[in-house]
Amino acid sequence: MRYLRALGALLACAALSVSCTDARAGSGAGAPGAPAELSAYERIVPAPARTAPGGPGYRLTAATVIRTTAGSREARGVGELLAAALRPATGLPLRVSGTDAAGAAGGVRLRLDPAAGAYGEEGYRLQADGEGVTVSAYRPAGLFRGAQTLRQLVPAEGAPVVAGGSVSDTPRFAYRGAMVDIARHFFTVAQVKRYVDQLALYKVNVLHLHLTDDQGWRLAVDSWPRLAEYGGASEVGGGPGGHWTKEEYRDLVRYAGERYMEVVPEIDMPGHTNAALASYAELNCSGVAPARYTGIKVGFSSLCVGKERTYEFVADVLREVAALTPGRWLHIGGDEAHSTPHDQYASFMARAQAAVGDTGKKVMAWHQLAGAEPVPGAVLQWWGTDKTKAAEKEQVAAAVRKGAKLVVSPADRSYLDIKYDAATKPGLSWPGYVPVERAYDWDPGTHLPGVPESAVLGVEAPLWTEVIATPAELDLMAFPRVIGVAELGWSPAAALDWDAYRLRLAAQGPVLTKLGIGFYRSPDVPWL
Ligand code: TNX
């Protein structure tokens, strides 16, 4: 069975004339059977579209300079980040110079090439030989992605030699996201920046921030100051909670942007709003503010749909969040509004979507919005499971037929807060367990019946934090599963193969260790 699957993947690779070295790696006579035997190019995660190993490699030395396209501040920024990432691993000074001229050779080069339009926003080409390594791309984001591939080609141990060969690579999906819930348990900007750095290595390009929920409101809003001051001072379990100032949020957005990661802020409505309701009595239909909430139930709170004041609140909050956010989307939640009658839900979501439109941003929401009326251009985020009723799936497929786009984050595949197995200490298990294989072994392009790949914007791995309270727990739950989801978002479908992937993932073990990530050593992976 294993052999047949690997063979199938291999034939598909041949049909696409991509090398798909990874698809071959897992099985078959003479194929490498242990992660230590994988070549440097076979170890790249996410698997690139094409690799062609061969020829002499390039040894980084004390004299190596990283040269970036002359006159490009962005290329230089990518060079600085690459140098900063490689210095600790290699112990080399790796000077960066913004003086690269077309035609010159040798050393490390990060080159914007106006003729390389075929690489699109994020694609790149990397070539390594005895003289040096050149990454070229059409856009700075592509240079940054290529620089991550280069980082992975520098061995975690031993001499800093970039193996000879080339990569040419573009992503399968435009949206490759990770979400962090800082509402149930508060996490600081510094903690989220660390996650951003980890994700960047695997070419994740969207950071979705779940900023508000029943247990806490985490972003300062000038026009409604009690949201953060009062509504932010709580969290699950009774801890102190906390919130981000606008300057802190801006700083994180900038940090993510330097890593070509777009921030999608989420203000969850009309349910999941107890922190707001507790902060302002006027947002409640009763006119009475409830107590703050530190438990982990969902579905009990609702904004007061019949009050005009509610829509002033929505407009004020979305306007301020939009002003802080350069990204395209505002996520307005819309999930588990079990305390909002359906007709009220639909009328509320119509007005909330219009309020997003007024800010100039596009709507993103959980897939329950399909049960109301998504505005043209809305992106729905699927978080159902294999067991979700067919009618709910069909509702989403119908919205897609009317033009909605989909980000897929199936709870029973890509939710990072779900236990790996019965022995996992933190985590929930409402959709079952999600072992590393299950998180990887599915296809975002064909996952939902009636939703063609062309309607799938991409994939996301959400990390909810009702029962995840510390950075160590975050590491354990996210890694290694988030790497698999990143590969599902980036790599060609033909390259996806669990038997091969588990070996490549095993080779990431020392990389994760070097980065100080306390990952879960799943017994399904033959860790190096
Ligand atoms: C469902 S996913 C939720 C969240 C919980 C999560 C826990 C979604 C839109 N709603 O409120 O945190 O499950 O796994």
Summarize the structure.
This protein is 33% helix and 17% strand. The protein has helices at residues 2-15, 21-25, 73-90, 140-153, 189-200, 226-229, 246-258, 274-279, 308-324, 342-358, 390-401, 411-414, 436-440, 471-478, 481-490, 498-514; strands spanning 50-53, 58-59, 65-69, 95-100, 107-112, 124-128, 132-137, 161-162, 165-169, 175-181, 206-210, 212-213, 216-217, 262-269, 329-333, 362-366, 379-382, 405-408, 456-463.
Report the biggest beta sheet as strand number plus sense, adding barrel if it closes.
Answer: 8 strands, parallel, barrel
Low-confidence stretches: 1-31
Overall pLDDT level? 93
Proportion of strand residues: 15-25%
Bound ions, cofactors and other small molecules, one mention each: ligand TNX
Envelope shape: globular
How many β-strands, per DSSP? 19
Give me the CATH superfamily of the largest domain. Answer: Glycosidases
Q: Residue share in helices?
A: 25-40%
Which structural class fits the helix and strand makeup? alpha/beta
What fold name stands as the CATH topology of the largest domain?
A: TIM Barrel
Q: Class of the largest domain in CATH?
A: Alpha Beta
How far is the first residue's CA from the last residue's CA? 25 Å
Radius of gyration in whole Å, from Cα? 23 Å
- Number of helical stretches of at least 4 residues: 16
The number of distinct structural domains comes to: 2
- Enumerate the strands of the largest sheet in spatial order, edge to edge or round the barrel: 10-11-14-15-16-17-18-19
